[in-house]
Amino acid sequence: MDNLDEILRQLVAQACTYPPRSIERQKIIQVIHQRVMTSGRLWNEERKPYYADALQEMWEYCCQHLEEYNPEIRGVITWLDDNLKRILRHYRDRTSRQRNRQAPVLQTQEGQILDPVDGLSASPDVQPALEMWNEVLDWVQTDPDGVLRNTFFKNRSDINAQVLLLQQLSPNILPWDTIAARFNLSPKDAKYLPQWYSRHCNRLLRTFGRERGYF
C-alpha cells in the first residue's frame, strides 16, 4: 500500500464520520478529489467524447455513497476506477444503441430490404465478456445450490445475496439508501448494508469466477 492510498483511505474514513451534507464532510471530499485528480492515476479515456460526463457522474455517485467503500477489499482509487468504468460502459452501450438505431436501411436490386444491424457481430474481445456476463447472470438468477438465497443480511432472509446481486447487475442500479428504504432498514443497518454486500456478495462472485476460470 503506497502513501497516497493510505492517505485516501484515512480521508474516506474521516469523511464518513460526518453527516452526508455537512460542511465538514464536503471539505474532506474536496481534498480527496484534489489528491486523486492531481495524482494522474485515475482511469483515463479523454479521447471518448462522453468521458467528462462519465467522470462527473462517477464523482457525484461516489461522493454520495462513501459508505459503500470497503478498505478491506480495494484501494480508494481502484474503487473510483471500478465505478468510473461501470459508468463508461453504460455510456458506450447507449452510444452503440443510438448508432444502431440511426443505421441506414439498404435495399438490393431485387427490392429486398437489408438491415445493416443484422450484419453486425460482436468483436472477438467483446464476445467472451458477453458470455461471461450471461453465465454470471444465469447463475445469480437460478442460484442452483441455494447459496445466494441462504446468504442473507442479519436475520432478514428477504435481503439475501441473490436479491442484492440482481439489483447490482441490473441496468438501473439503485443507490444504497433507496434499497435500504425499500427494506425499511434502520439508519444503522442502512449504513452497514453496502459493507455487508462488499464482504459477502463480492466474495461469492469471486468464488464463482474462480470456479469458472475467469481469473
How would you portray this structure in words?
The protein has about 220 residues and is mainly α. It is about 60% helix and about 5% strand. It has two domains: about 1-120, no CATH class; about 120-215, no CATH class. It is globular and about 45 Å long. Mean pLDDT is about 80; it is low at about 100-110 and about 115-125. It starts with a helix and ends with a helix. A two-stranded antiparallel sheet has the order 1-2. It contains eight helices and four strands.
Features:
two-stranded antiparallel ribbon, 215 residues, 8 helices, two-stranded antiparallel sheet, single chain, 2 domains, globular, mainly alpha
What is the helix fraction of residues, given as a range?
55-70%
Largest sheet: 2 strands, antiparallel
Low-confidence stretches: 102-108, 113-126
Number of helices: 8
Mean pLDDT: 82
What is the spatial order of strands in the main beta sheet? 1-2
Structural class: mainly alpha
% residues in beta strands: 5-15%
Shape, principal axes of CA atoms: globular
Q: Which radius of gyration do the C-alpha atoms yield?
A: 21 Å
Distance between the termini: 22 Å
Instruction: Write down how many β-strands occur, each being a DSSP E stretch of 2 or more residues.
Output: 4
